[in-house]
Amino acid sequence: PSFFGYPLSIFFIIVNEFCERFSYYGMRAVLVLYFKYFLQWDDNLSTAIYHTFVALCYLTPILGALIADSWLGKFLTIVCLSAVYTGGQAVMAVSSINDLTDDNRDGSPDNMYLHIALSMTGLILIALGTGGIKPCVSAFGGDQFEDGQEKQRSRFFSIFYLSINAGSLLSTIITPILRAQECGIHSKQRCYPLAFGVPAALMAVSLVVFVAGSKMYKKARPQGNIMIQVSKCIGFAIKNRFRHRSKEFPKREHWLDWASEKYDKRLITQTKMVLKVLFLYIPLPMFWALFDQQGSRWTLQATTMDGNFGSIQIQPDQMQTANAILIIIMVPVVDTVVYPLIKKCKINFTPLRKITVGMFLASLAFVAAALVQVQIDKTLPVFPASGQSQIKIINLGTDAVTVQFEPQLQTANVKSMESTTYMTFGTSQLQSLSITSGNKATNQTVQLLEGARYTLGVKNNATGIVAKLLFDNVTSKPEEGNNLIRFINNLADPVNVTMGDTSFGRLMPLSASSYSLFPGGTKDEIMIVTNSIPCSVTSKAFGFGSAYTITIDECTERNVNITYSEDIPPNTVHMAWQIPQYFILTCAEVVFSVTGLEFSYSQAPSNMKAVLQAGWLLTVAVGNIIVLIVARASKLSEQWAEYVLFAALLLAVCIIFAVMAYFYTYVDPNEIEAQLDEEEKKQVKKDQDVSEKEADHVSEK
Fold first, then answer.
1. Whether residue 254 has pLDDT greater than 90
2. Where are the transmembrane segments (predicted)?
3. Phi and psi (nearest 5°) for 660?
4. What confidence tens digit (pLDDT) does each residue in 70-94 have?
5. DSSP class per residue in 287-345
6. Is beta strand 388-395 parallel, antiparallel or unpaired with respect to 453-461?
7. Contact of 23 with 203, CB cutoff 8 Å
8. 377 with 301: CB under 8 angstroms?
9. 247 or 215, which is more confident?
10. DSSP character for 576?
11. Measured between alpha carbons, how far is 100 from 120 in angstroms, rounded to an integer?
12. What pLDDT does 631 receive?
């Protein structure tokens, strides 16, 4: 059955592909944050495991192609591996359920090893599934068309690509929203089970839809795998060349000609063409090394930025949608506007030149990322190093205060109801504090811990100077754009404080609560009760990633007076500053990725497309392995320096590729095939003539 001239079966395939890509990209969007915040891994380990997983997803297609072509056929391969894939997504969703091992109900898993084991099992199954079906689905779609339907077939591939981008775009918007929800039985947590569960459900839908169309599909029998033949041909040529390495054997034009004893001329010629293209692939992995860091390093960069877009609050993992949105806009723009303009300027923009430009642009994108990182680093607070401690002073009284850090280290003057920033001291050097306010003075000896921060609350009241040294248990910026808030009671009576749904308990005079976490970019109602008198006030809108100490100075039925003291400044670099680097990288992808596949197909015989597809996917896998090696070997402490390093490496590779491209000569596979056909015809005719002569010779006898 057909629909508008298209086989009806392809609609099942397109829906299947949309659901599968939604499932894959949705899971991948939140993956690096799941490692960081749920499994509690640091940035480097999270990045390493993320890229190992992506590399695996691009290594397994070779396995999928071998299974489909040599054994099960495309249809059964897709069905079996989709089932494995769905299982992997389900295991991933289960692994992220906090309450699975949270026996003491404190909000964090008690047996982290179980969660890690389940996650890794899930990811391996997903890599097997997504990689295994990747080479089969598009080819299976192509198989559904008859010989005269070239136009419909090429239109199908365009719609197929659109469904991939639509799936990835929607999932990168939706799954981070699901992740940002709070869910859980005993304690409310970020909702990773939902963020992984929805992709798992869509993968199941994808499988059901694909099987539903089973009766309509044209199912080609497995034809044997061309990759195996090519590998055998290359292997035999090398072996044979090695056997005949002495001088007495005449040299052959090309080393692959040593396979001519066993393999026909056509296969050898086709293999030569494929190897010529694969040789050009050698520098390409460096591009993917940079490109795939959108999901790891760039997402982690976004966690230290301000995601407040007016009424919309953008999650760090949602910034990846910039790529999917820009791709949908840029592909038609580049095809219909940019390329024709370049043509009008009489510039011969060959495919290899396009790829070179793509590499150069990706390198530029990382320079942009480094510039943004430098701005972010300026806003990050400096925490005490080993051998150091930090102190800030809050003046809770009505008179100015002077604090001398002894022995003669430095002096701080603080006006009424104001505070200082943190001052850094050598832990062993600071011994005591001399405090004067009005006409009163006091001395206080101090013993500080290394690497810790303290707040000194000072108040000059009727009885004298009261000075309290509070331990601030915070030595890093709050994660995920959350804020830390605590209260100091500056009243004469005890108070009960509640902010939003969080109770800070009962605070005695001049004592401080512990810090509590609040989501970024929100205002909350602060409720204070003292001597049975309730008073309330709405807090100011806190930014993202800050910490504040709020002092309660007055609470009557008519009046509430509170003072904010900033302990850690909020993220001030806006997430919109990531858009330029995404834009440049997307332009790079358009000229690199789209051109790369077209070029490969135009330079190799039609029956060798599978080998080139495998080679192309292999470059992505190797690119992700490069990230692991560079990130591990470079030992750079500054993130901006690592971005610059990657940009420099790609620039160097780009120059090497440009030289290789300069010496490349384009071929027309159809012409070469026609020559081979001609030669074969001549050979057949020659053989016929010989056998006829022999027959005549025999009859004469």
1. no
2. 48-68, 75-92, 112-133, 154-174, 194-213, 273-291, 324-342, 354-374, 610-631, 643-664
3. -60, -40
4. 788 889 999 999 999 999 999 999 9
5. HHHHHGGGTTHHHHHHTTSB-EETTEE--GGGGGHHHHHHHHHHHHHIIIIIHHHHHHT
6. parallel
7. yes
8. no
9. 215
10. G
11. 16
12. 78
